[in-house]
Amino acid sequence: MVMSSINLGKRIKELRKRFKITQDKLSKKADIPYSTLAKIESGYTPNPSMKTLIKIADAFGVGVDELLGRK
Fold first, then answer.
1. What are the tens digits of pLDDT across the range 10-44?
2. How far is 35 from 24, CA to CA, in rounded Å?
3. Model-level pTM?
4. DSSP letters along 5-65, please?
């Protein structure tokens, strides 16, 4: 099952709030452009690359499954 871009964005925002980290800090920690993260969170990037998802998950210290809400 593929997660919708809106649900993925909400999930990332939930994790950011849980870890008390801003979009700016997360984008730097994940080594991705701030604009990319903002677009993913807002649902404007329907299919972020696996590489980007891995970077975001690694920045949170979680697996991709948890990032996608599957764990």
1. 999 999 999 999 999 999 999 999 999 999 999 88
2. 9
3. 0.89
4. HHHHHHHHHHHHHHHT--HHHHHHHHTS-HHHHHHHHHT--SS--HHHHHHHHHHHT--HH
Four-way CATH pick for 5-67: 2.40.160.40, 3.10.450.60, 3.40.1030.10, 1.10.260.40: 1.10.260.40
Nearest partner of 54 among 71, 66, 44, judged by Cα: 66
Structure tokens of 36? 């990319």
- DSSP code at position 71: -
Parse the chain into domains and list their residue ranges: 5-67
33, 27 contact by CB (below 8 A): yes
Tokens encoding 49:
């690359």
